[in-house]
């Protein structure tokens, strides 16, 4: 799994990099076919301070690309929301990709 963390108008500190890495480990624990993860952390210059910190993530899994974004006043809270959204998407994709079709008893006979 390739993990790329970049910042826009923000320097990605080792503490922030470690926090994002630990939060996204949950995704690879749920689904092992993750090929590539790209995280973009930005600080917008908005007048209201509510949604200044923004976290975006693209995940390339086998057969599909998943995208999620989250904005919050605190960057760590935005990363938490982002990890929750991505976890739900990955679990939904995993459920859909598994073969749930079973042969009926009539066809087996």
UniProtKB/TrEMBL annotation:
Associates exclusively with 100S ribosomes, which are dimers of 70S ribosomes. PANTHER family: 30S RIBOSOMAL PROTEIN. The lineage of its organism: Bacteria, Pseudomonadati, Pseudomonadota, Betaproteobacteria, Burkholderiales. It comes from the Bacteria. Keywords: Translation regulation. GO terms for cellular component: cytosolic small ribosomal subunit. GO terms for molecular function: ribosomal small subunit binding. The keyword Transmembrane does not apply. The gene is raiA. Belongs to the HPF/YfiA ribosome-associated protein family. Short HPF subfamily. This is Ribosome hibernation promoting factor. Signal peptide: none annotated. GO terms for biological process: negative regulation of translational elongation.
């Amino acid at each position: 799994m390739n993990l790329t963390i970049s910042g826009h108008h923000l320097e990605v500190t080792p503490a922030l990099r470690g926090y994002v890495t630990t939060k996204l480990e949950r995704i690879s624990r749920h689904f092992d076919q993750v090929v590539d993860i790209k995280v973009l952390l930005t600080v917008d210059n908005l007048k209201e301070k509510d949604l200044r910190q923004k976290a975006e993530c693209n995940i390339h899994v086998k057969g599909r690309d998943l995208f999620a974004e989250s904005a919050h006043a605190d960057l760590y809270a935005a990363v938490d929301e982002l990890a929750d959204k991505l976890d739900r998407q990955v679990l939904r994709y995993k459920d859909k990709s598994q073969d749930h079709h079973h042969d009926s008893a009539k066809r087996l006979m």
